[in-house]
Amino acid sequence: MTAGVLAGRPRHLPQSELRSGIGYWVASLVTMMRFDYGRMRQWAGMMIVIQTMMGAGMALLYGFFYPHITAMRALYITTGAPTLALIPLGFVMVPGTVAQQKLEGTFDYIWSLPAPRSAQAASTFVLYTLLALPGSVLALLVAAWRYDVHLSVSLLLIPAVLLCALMATTVGYGLALAVSNPIVTNVVTNALMFVVLLFSPIVYPASQLPAWLATVHYFLPFYNMAVVIRAGLTFGAVDHLTTSFIVLAAWAVVGAAATAWVVGRRR
Amino acid sequence: MTTPKMAEVLPASVIVPHGTVERGARHWSHDYVVMVRWHLADLRIWLMTLTAVQLLSGVGFVLGISLFFTHIPMTAALFVSTGVPVINLLMVGMILGPQLVADQRSSGSYEYLRSMPVSRSVTGAAWYTVCLIGGVPAMIVSLGVARLRYDLPLHVSPMIVPAVLLTSFAGTMLGYAIGHAIGNPMATRLITQLLVFVVFGFAPVMFPLSQMPRWLGAVNWWLPFRHMAVVMRSALTPGVHTAVMSGYVVLCVWAVVCAALAGRALGRRP
Q1: Is A208 near chain B, with CB under 8 Å?
Q2: Are B251 and B167 in contact (CB under 8 A)?
Q3: Measured between CB atoms, does A206 come within 8 Å of chain B?
Q4: How many CA atoms lie within 13 A of B262 on its CB side?
Q5: What's the complex ipTM?
Q6: Closest by alpha carbon to B126, among B198, B48, B41, B188?
Q7: Model-level pTM?
Q8: Which of A117, A150, A168, B81 is most buried (most C-beta within 10 Å)?
Q9: B52: distance to nearest CA of chain A, Å?
C-alpha cells in the first residue's frame, strides 16, 4: 500500500526540472502557436477585415483630399496601401492584445506555462506576421483597382513585406511589454496612428515634408516600410533601398531585444 | 386582523426612496446646474485625453494636410480649416460620449446614473452643455491656427451661433442615441469607430463634394455630416452658399429623431 503510493507519487508531480535544447524549443514553439491560434481564431477574420478596411479605406480616403489625382499621386497612394494595412496590425492590435491579456490575467498565465518564454514570444511574432499578409494583399488590390495603376511586382516584395510585418510585430510587442500600464499603451498607439496617417511620407513623397521632419523619418520605421514595399511593387521609383532595409532590420532587432529584456527578467 | 396588515404596509411605504422627479422650472434649472457640474467632475479624468484628441485632430489636421501637397491650393486649405471645427464639435458628443456610456455599461455605473432623480430633458440638456464646453474652445483654437498658417479669408458671420449650436446638438443627439439605444457596449464602440472613419474621410467635411464619387455624395445627402460642414462653412466664409437652408432642415430632422430615440431608451424601465 505505502509502496504503491510512493511509486505513484512522482507521476502526479509536475515536471519541474528545466528542460532545454533546440528540439524542446521547437516543440514548444509549435505548441504555443497552436495555443495562440486557438485563442486568436475567433478574431482572425475580424482582424483581416479591419486591416483591409484600414489599408484600402485609407487609400481611397487619401484620394478624396486631392483635387486632381496625377499618375504620380496614384502610384504613391497605391503602393502605400499595403504599408498602411501592416502598421495598425503591428502597432495597434499587437499592443492592444497584450494590454488586454494583462488586464485579464492571461498574460501571467501564459508566462507560467512550461514553455520557454522566447518560444512564446516567437509564436506571437510568427502568427501575427502571417496574419498580416492577406489584409495587405487585399488593400493593394483594392487600391490598384481604384486608381488603375499598373504595378511591376518583383521577388523583392517577399522579403520586404515579411521584414515589415516582423518588424511591426516585434516593435509593437516590445512596446506593449516595456510599457507596463495598458492605458498608457493605448494612448501611445492611438497617438502613433495619427502621426503615421498624417505626418509620415507613406502615401506622398518625403520631399514634401519640411527638411527636419524628413530627417526624423529616415530613422523611424514608417517611411522605410513604405520604401521597401514600394521597391517591390515598382521599377526604379525608389532609391536608398539598402539603407531602408538596414533601418527596418535595426528596428526589428530593437523590438526583439526589448522583448527579450522584459521576458528574461524575473519578477 | 387590521393591525398586522397596517404594519406590513407601513414599513414598505417608508423604504420607498425619494425618487420621484421634481417638476417645475426652478427644479429644472437646479437639476441642470447639478448635472453639468456632475459631468464636468466626472470628465476631469478624461480631460487629458480629450485635450490631446482635440489638439491632434484639430491642429494636427490643419497643419498636416499641407504635407499632402507640394503647394497646398487655397481651396484645399479652406475646406480643411472649415471642416476641422465640425470635427472638434462632434468629438465629445458623438465620438467620446457613446464610448463613455459604453464604459459605464461595462463597469456598472450606468445603472447608478440612471437611478438619479432627474428628468430626461435635464440629463440631455446638461450633457449637451458639456459637449459645447468640450468643443467650442477647441474649434476656436483650430480656426486660429488655420488662419495663422494659411492666411485664410475667413469671415465669421452671426450665423455661426445657430450653426455651432445645431451642429453640436445634432452630433450630441446622434451620439446619445448610439450610446443609450444600443445595449451592447462592444457594438457601441465599433459603430463609433466607424463614424470616426466616415466623418474624417468618407463625408465631404474636409474636402469639396466634387472630389468624391457622385454616388457617395448622394449617400451623404442623407447623413448629417455633409450638412454640418455646409452650415458651418457658410457661417465662416464670405460669399453665397447653396443648400444652407436644406442643410439646417436635415440637421433638425436628425437631431429630433435621435433625441426621440435616446429619450425613449432612457425612459424605458430596464
Answers
A1: yes
A2: yes
A3: no
A4: 30
A5: 0.76
A6: B41
A7: 0.78
A8: A168
A9: 9
